[in-house]
Amino acid sequence: MRMAFMGAAAASVLVTPGCGEDVQRNRYGALAECVADYSDAQCRPDYPVGGGYRPGMSTGYYGPWYRSNAAARDAADPGPGRYFRGGGMGFSSGSTTSRAPSVETGTRGGFGGHGVSARG
Amino acid sequence: MRRERIHPRADWRERVEELGFDFHTIDGEAYWCEDACYRFSSDEVDTLEDATAELHSLCLEAVDRIVRESRYADLGLDDTAAHLVERSWHAHEPALYGRMDLAWDGNGAPKLLEYNADTPTALFEASVVQWYWLKDAYPAADQFNSIHERLIERWKQVSTTEKVHFTASYEQAEDRATCEYLRDTATQAGLDTVALDIGDVGWSGADFIDLDDQVIATLFKLYPWEWLLSEPFAANIPKVGLRWIEPPWKMLLSNKSILPLLWEFFPDHPNLLPASHRRADMAGAYVRKPRFGREGEGVYVLGPGICEPPANEPQVYQQFHELPCFDGRYALIGSWVIGHEPAGIGLREDGDRVTRNTSCFVPHYFEG
Fold first, then answer.
1. What average pLDDT does the structure give for chain B?
2. Residue B28: which residues within 8 A CB-CB, separation 6 or more?
3. CA-based nearest residue in chain B for residue A14
4. Rounded-to-integer distance, Cα B153 and Cα A53, Å
5. What is the rounded distance in angstroms from the CA atom of residue B10 to the CA atom of residue A84?
6. HEC profile of B288-330
7. Is A70 within 8 Å of chain B by CB?
8. B121, B217, B233 ranked by CB distance to A20: nearest
9. Which end is more exposed in chain A, N or C (fewer Cβ atoms within 10 Å of the end residue's Cβ)?
């Protein structure tokens, strides 16, 4: 199953129990902080939902979505990033700051459970 | 109306695959069958077109009456579904397409068996594949088929946003083909389109969103309303102002329980068959259909003295009306409605009296 990417600018995303699989992502104040946790390609600016991104417009950066349940993560899951994997003791490379990223949560997979053709 | 045995094009497989038709054979059995075709007269096409227009008009009247009289319980719909239906009906949210299944042998009045008003398929083969077959096999003849042109025109009317998202179970070949074909017609109508597997639709806490975090403003879904409303994201549907295609009011027509209501509202109409939720109301042979059945699933032809199989969901009973049988093949006419206009037909045939998902699609033509 593909990993969904959700809610770039949803400042407060609530998880409704039972509404699909819980996922989360880290929000960083600067691109360097995100890249220190993931790769450049996995980091994206926070821009308004429904609008286009312009350079300088971003107020932060997001890492990729990963499953909240660590036991459910497979090889394709990017995981929580180096910061949290290191026990929250600072970035393991690159960055000069150890400010903890915030975590936003969301859901995916709330539709599509029937798994059969809709032919009618 | 008659069935003609013909020679398939020598390279038919390559010809249909060039069009992107990759499910011409299902589970090793031919689904696209061009070793036969159906021939109609122009008068017969007129009869089908008139019957389709009449039936669609009756259906719209029935929707209005169901909403005015809150007859949702007759269709097994809960308050959430009723709210969505009413909101979309009162807002005049436009419909894109639907397919009526008609029983007709060229004589008398065509009879409505059911209306696939929410997620009709067999669209690409009706709109495109049989059209190219006609150009190869009967270039001087005509076909009751303006589906493609009408879809493009209809998209210009149904979408209020420049971007339309399309979702379906993309791992299902027929669903993918139908959804991608409709997406192509929307693109030809000048719309910006995004494809999205139904499982990838996300919820941000305020909106449904796509894989690029964009809010979904208009969503074509090849996914039945009764499934959407039974899944975890159902509670979010009433919270958003998303434009759904098909709109929620279409769930009244795709529900088999519309058949008894149509018969109640328009008794003895020549294009309708007697139908009821009670078996006792049926005289002689009848067909039992599950309220939310798809493609012949759970459909039984029954009658006096025949033991009725057990059922664990509500059933609809409809007077049995034999499909015409040619060369041992029972033929069903799928009559397409684009917007509110009849737009063409596609024929399915089977050795059994019940048309199923594996029943062959057979092309047609007519001569004036």
1. 94
2. none
3. B205
4. 32
5. 63
6. EEECCCCCCCCCEEECCCCCCCCCCCCEEEEECCCCCEECCEE
7. no
8. B233
9. N
Inspect the interface and report whether the beta carbons of A18 and B232 lie closer than 8 Å.
yes
Its ipTM equals 0.87
Question: How is chain A split into domains, by residue range?
Answer: 21-108
Q: From B228, which residue of chain A is nearest by alpha-carbon distance?
A: A111
State mean pLDDT over B218-223.
Answer: 97
Instruction: pLDDT band for A100, please (50, 70, 90 cuts).
Output: confident
Question: What pLDDT score does B25 carry?
Answer: 93
Taking only the tens place, the pLDDT of each residue in B80-101 is: 999 999 999 999 999 999 999 9
Enumerate residues 6+ apart whose C-beta is below 8 A from B9: B15, B34, B133, B136, B137
Q: Does A114 touch chain B (CB under 8 A)?
A: yes
- Chain B residues touching chain A at CB-CB below 8 Å: 116, 118-122, 167-169, 172, 174-175, 197-207, 209, 211-215, 217, 222-224, 227-228, 231-233, 235-236, 254, 294-295, 357
Which one of A1, A10, A112 has the shortest CB-CB distance to B204? Answer: A10
Compute the nearest-CA separation of B115 from chain A (Å): 9
pLDDT of amino acid A98? 53
pLDDT of A39-73, one tens digit each? Answer: 988 887 775 433 344 555 567 888 887 888 888 88
A7/B contact by beta carbon, under 8 A: yes
pLDDT value at B114 more than 60:
yes
Report the alpha-carbon distance of residue B7 to residue B138 in Å, rounded. 12
Domain map of chain B by residue range? 2-256+323-367
Task: Kindly report the pTM of this predicted structure.
Answer: 0.83
Nearest residue of A to residue B334, measured between CA atoms: A120
Minimum CA–CA partner of B297 in chain A: A120
Alpha-carbon distance A12 to nearest alpha carbon in chain B (angstroms): 8
Q: What is the DSSP string of B17-49?
A: HHTT---SEETTEESB--SEEEEEEHHHHHHHH
The percentage of chain A sitting over the pLDDT mark of 70, rounded to a whole number, equals 60
pLDDT of residue A51: 39
Q: Are strands B2-5 and B36-41 parallel, antiparallel or unpaired?
A: antiparallel
Q: Is A33 left (phi over 0), alpha (psi -120 to 50) or beta?
A: alpha
Contacts of B215 in chain A (CB under 8 A): 49-50
Q: Could you give the CA distance from residue B354 to residue A97 in angstroms, rounded to a whole number?
A: 69
Mean pLDDT to the nearest integer, B174-193: 95
| Contact status, residue B177 vs residue B124, Cβ threshold 8 Å | yes
